[in-house]
Design brief:
alpha/beta, nine-stranded mixed sheet, seven-stranded parallel sheet, 18 helices, 23 strands, 37% helix, globular
């Protein structure tokens, strides 16, 4: 195709308008036309990566196959397009400054005064162009975090301004803004959009395409007005209306010709509009699923973005099982033996969520005990799996003080322990077992039934592991170590085969579930939850 084309996605007026979803949708539509695409996110905060951020600050931390802790938008990019992102797909201000300072110390800049412009902006530009240069992508879509007007995003916007000038027709800017509806006046207001575009223009950037986020349909007059005041072609003013599902956004963008406009503005052939057949059939199936299965998420973060990938993976699995998954957050800090029956009442399945630290772990242990003794399908992920292990050691093996070394340094039964190579690490960020690792699954296990293959590769994000000294005791008592890492011999998957579905994974399967390729463990877990629901319904009919 020749030179890589660049689409820069910026946002104004307010954060959380859905730049990640629009970027993912653009990627999906261009990909459907046969182009080789990637999407990257530039985050203007000074942390090196979001690995040390509390989920309340920035939502879930998403992990790439190559072990980079990244922004949750990369999860959207992968779920929408099926591409695999890497550390090059998420860059923060911290990474940019670190890189520049590392070059400055040995004298790489030959005595120059290091400045925001040109040194910082040059480093940003180098990172934006890197993926096109190395992998020869047809399109690199670059999303800039934050909103226009933020002090911290200015170097990124300046870098984009320079690149658009340098790249000519090979680069365009798509700006996402908000059109609020004033209920008292019964009017939609375009002034915030006009102001946002003026701010962008004052930085030297003229948007080529405007996507207007709105809760109410925008008529032709409003779009015309926005086009007129913002110097944008009328057909390049697109509305992004609230949809029942984020997965409907690509179809809405395609219906308004967003991908066509991008190609036109880059002097590229338009060709036929892709049918998006598999995507449409996924949505069709999703919309037809009316039966509901209730699943509890036992965790400590009462924030949907903290468990974003888990929620999406459950939703994918629900669709492919022709059910709607209804999630119920259960705060593990408030969960006790006295209230667990009430809290988990009516739940067909339970996910024991990942996390770090002491807070809320006893509640997760209570949940694991209740679901194990009441045979409710249970999926423990990372720390969730470790809590299942601790509960089993305490209740079945009789080790009342069993614990993880993370929670109790002095536990006599450290069924979860720190890896040898982790013991001397003092830095928190980026030092865990991160990224994709191999795992061998035992044939005949429930896990093998789900995957239908023996060798798998899954992504990790943790420091503590199952203590192999206890394998024999666990297996003898009924909890089987059915997944093992072939290189380190570490336990990756545990299950109790005598129960309906009681599986814990040391890895995070939610990172690799996509719209067109749902994760086998989530499919299997949701199916088991549905079977459990049906059985409960049948039993209650018999009782009547």
């Amino acid at each position: 195709m020749g030179d890589t084309k660049y689409v820069f996605v910026t946002g104004g007026v307010a954060s959380s308008l859905g730049k990640g979803i629009i970027s993912s949708s653009v990627g999906k539509l261009l990909q459907a036309r046969g182009y080789n695409i990637t999407i990257q996110k530039f985050d203007p905060y000074i942390n090196i990566d979001p690995g040390t951020l509390n989920p309340y600050e920035h939502g879930e931390c998403y992990v790439t196959v190559d072990g980079q802790e990244t922004d949750l938008d990369l999860g959207h990019y992968e779920r929408f397009t099926g591409i695999q992102t890497t550390r090059a797909n998420n860059i923060t201000t911290g990474r940019i400054y670190q890189s520049v300072i590392e070059k400055e110390r040995p004298g790489d800049y030959l005595g120059k005064t290091i400045q925001e412009v040109t040194h910082i902006t040059d480093e940003i530009k180098r990172n934006i162009k890197l993926m096109g240069k190395i992998y020869k992508f047809d399109f690199v879509i670059t999303e800039i975090g934050g909103t226009v007007g933020d002090i911290e995003s200015q170097p990124f916007l300046e870098a984009i301004r320079q690149l658009r000038w340098e790249l000519g027709k090979d680069a365009i800017n798509l700006h996402l803004t908000y059109v609020p509806y004033l209920a008292a006046a019964k009017e939609l207001k375009t002034k915030p959009t006009q102001t946002s575009v003026k701010q962008l223009q004052s930085l030297g950037i003229q948007p080529d395409i405007l996507v207007l986020r709105t809760e109410h349909e925008l008529n032709a007059d409003i779009r015309k007005k926005v086009a007129h005041f913002c110097n944008v072609d009328e057909n390049a003013v697109i509305q992004s209306l609230d949809k029942p599902s984020i997965y409907e956004v690509p179809l809405s963008m395609q219906a308004q010709g967003l991908d066509t406009i991008i190609l036109q503005k880059m002097n590229m052939p338009i060709g036929d509009t892709p049918q998006l057949g598999p995507w449409r059939s996924f949505l069709d199936r999703r919309n037809k699923a009316t039966d509901i299965v209730d699943i509890a998420l036992v965790g400590k973060y009462d924030l949907q973005d903290a468990y974003k990938s888990i929620l999406e993976s459950l939703a994918h699995a629900g669709t492919y099982n022709d059910y709607k998954v209804k999630n119920h957050f259960v705060n593990s800090e408030k969960l006790t033996r006295e209230n667990v029956a009430e809290q988990l009442k009516g739940m067909a399945g339970v996910v024991i969520c990942p996390g770090f630290g002491q807070r809320g772990i006893e509640g997760k242990i209570v949940a694991a005990e209740y679901t194990r003794t009441h045979d409710i399908p249970t999926f423990g992920i990372c720390l969730g799996m470790q809590m299942m292990v601790i509960e089993f050691a305490r209740d079945v093996l009789g080790y009342a003080e069993a614990n993880s070394r993370e929670m109790d340094e002095k536990t006599p039964h450290n069924v979860i322990d720190i890896m040898e190579e982790q013991k001397n690490i003092t830095q928190m960020g980026g030092t865990m077992r991160l990224g994709a690792y191999e795992c061998d699954i035992r044939k005949g296990s429930k896990t093998y039934e789900a995957y239908q293959q023996q060798q798998i590769s899954e992504r990790h994000r943790h420091r503590y592991e199952f203590n192999n000294q206890y394998i024999e005791e666990f297996e003898k008592a009924g909890m089987q170590c059915v997944g093992i890492n072939p290189d380190s011999n570490l336990v990756e998957i545990l299950e109790i085969p005598t129960l309906k579905w009681y599986i814990g994974t040391q890895f995070h399967p939610e990172y690799s579930s996509t719209v067109l390729k749902p994760h086998p463990l989530f499919l299997s877990f949701v199916k088991a939850s549905i079977d459990n629901l049906r059985q409960t319904q049948q039993n209650s009919k018999k009782d009547k």
